[in-house]
Design brief:
There is one protein chain. It is built from 20 helices and 18 strands. It starts with a strand and ends with a helix. With 496 residues, the chain is an alpha/beta fold. The strands form 6 sheets. A 5-stranded parallel beta sheet has the order 11-14-17-10-18. A 4-stranded mixed beta sheet has the order 1-2-4-3. The chain has a 3-stranded parallel beta sheet with strand order 5-8-9. The protein is elongated and about 85 Å long.
């Protein structure tokens, strides 16, 4: 062996939803045998030394008995994950002239088994976007090759085992995306008997992506109704699919349904931690609100969530993203989701029930309802009371309107809004909102009277107007009428 061998290959580390370029530099020189990795690597990266050594030998390559120094540049950037296994091994093999130098011009990522098999890692879609941006071909673990089909314009070759690096110019380049079709939603609205007012509220919420709270006693159908929201929503468009799929891929979740156009529906348990709901950890991972990006976050039994976790939703509901501040910088995760929640009116659940008396003391009712908090309630556009259905009506099995008909009306309303230059009613503010509503003097006076009577904040008035605009879109009305304002007020002025 000559005194000095050097090589470098391209990879990346995921920070937030972005894969930041990293260059794996290898220096093999004389000295006592050693395998050193520098460049602010975490424990998973440092453990690559043993996996890489075993994989190289198992695939018939020679592992150099020399001083090996691996530098992950830029050095100040924290690197994490097992995806550095393949680029480190490839850099060593390129430096020792055991594989063609052309391997170094690819973007590499993947975990190695002790036998040299290449495994997929979380964040492959982010890596694919980084490779396309840098105009590099990508070597993708064969078991995960389908995950990069969503990135158009990327040349990627599957690699099954480390020995495949001996022939990097084989014709395995992907030239087209796989067509995926969303499956029919299993939960249909025709299974929900009664609750016409709640169904109307669900339709309005779905048409305008408004936040919704369902309040009622146990067994009234709150959860059943909320879980059928997915059958009403339109499919994701191409840009939304990729955005949502990247987040799921980073979190290690299956993104197949997302890439097929199905909107995410996340329903975390009320014992979820703050980091689990909003994001965080070491290394940072997206939380449930980001996994619900472009979809629905369903919080069943809302008052049972920790108050701190609930209040952490306030800023993402306004901004559509969450920013985590850490010692080494800021990490941003998109979080543009539709919040749907259910709650009992009191601890026993029967406050206001016409058939069963509530047994809760007034003090416990107040504490229970205050767990949600006024600021969060101010960000909920629609709140509906649901009562239990008469068992005789349930057993009658009457025909109910199915999801397909409501889905079509919602699609028509969204098309009407789009034709009038409104891409997202839920984001309209200020003069843009007033211009979209086209309120006349009588509607302005009516709205002002409602706002004063119910002590609505400026945010409350804005959200009420957005709901009224969505109601007008469902009616295909150019302007918001007094009837739309009255219906929006009736849907909003409800407390647990």
């Amino acid at each position: 062996m000559s005194p000095q061998f050097r090589a470098s290959v391209h990879t990346a580390t995921v920070r937030g939803t972005t894969a930041v370029d990293v260059i794996v530099e290898v220096d093999i020189g004389n000295g006592l045998p050693a395998f050193i990795i520098v460049g602010l690597a975490d424990a998973a990266v440092l453990e690559a030394r043993d996996r890489v050594r075993s994989a190289i030998r198992a695939c018939g390559f020679d592992f150099p008995s020399a001083r090996i120094v691996v530098n992950l540049a830029p050095a100040p950037l924290r690197k994490h994950g097992t995806g550095f296994d393949l680029p480190i091994a490839a850099a060593i093999l390129v430096a020792t002239r055991q594989v063609p130098e052309s391997v170094a011009h690819h973007h590499l990522v993947g975990e190695l088994s002790l036998e040299g098999h290449v495994r997929g890692v979380p964040g492959l879609l982010s890596h694919a976007l980084a490779a396309r941006s840098a105009d590099r071909d990508m070597l993708v673990p064969a078991e995960a090759i389908d995950r990069v089909h969503a990135v158009a314009g990327l040349n990627a070759r599957p690699i099954r085992i480390l020995a495949d690096l001996r022939a990097p110019n084989q014709e395995h380049v992907l030239q087209k995306r796989t067509s995926l079709t969303a499956k029919k939603h299993a939960l249909d609205l025709d299974e929900v008997v009664g609750h016409e007012a709640a169904k109307r509220a669900l339709e309005i919420a779905a048409a305008g992506s408004h936040n919704l709270l369902l309040v009622g006693p146990p067994g009234s159908g709150k959860t059943m109704l909320a879980r059928r929201l997915g059958s009403l929503l339109p499919s994701l468009d191409d840009s939304e699919r990729l955005e949502a799929a990247v987040i799921h891929d980073i979190a290690g979740c299956d993104s197949t349904s997302i890439l097929a156009g199905e909107r995410p529906f996340r329903a975390p348990h009320h014992s979820s931690s703050l980091a689990g709901l909003v994001g965080g950890g070491t290394p940072p991972r997206p939380g449930e609100i980001s996994l619900a990006h472009h979809g629905v976050l369903f919080l069943d039994e809302l008052p049972e969530f920790a108050p701190g976790a609930l209040q952490s939703l306030r800023q993402p509901l306004e901004d559509g993203e969450v920013t985590l501040v850490r010692a080494d910088g800021r990490i941003r995760y998109p979080a543009q989701f539709m919040l749907v929640a259910s709650a009992n009116p009191c601890p026993c659940g029967f406050l206001g029930d016409p058939e069963r008396r509530c047994t809760c003391p007034a003090s416990s009712i107040g504490r229970y309802q205050n767990r949600i908090g006024g600021p969060l309630m101010d960000r909920i556009d629609i709140a509906v009371r649901m009562n239990r259905i008469d068992p005789a009506r349930l057993l009658a099995r009457q025909d109910c309107e199915g999801s397909i008909h409501v889905h079509d009306r919602i699609g028509t309303a969204r098309e009407f809004a789009f034709a009038h230059g409104r891409l997202a009613t839920r984001s309209l503010i200020g003069n843009d909102l007033l211009a979209a509503c086209k309120l006349e003097a009588s509607e302005r006076q009516l709205l002002a009277a409602h706002a004063k009577r119910h002590h609505l904040s400026g945010r409350g008035v804005t959200r009420l107007l957005r709901v009224a605009r969505t109601i007008a879109d469902l009616a295909r009305s150019e302007r918001v009428t007094a009837d739309a304002v009255d219906e929006a007020v009736g849907l909003r002025i409800t407390t647990p």
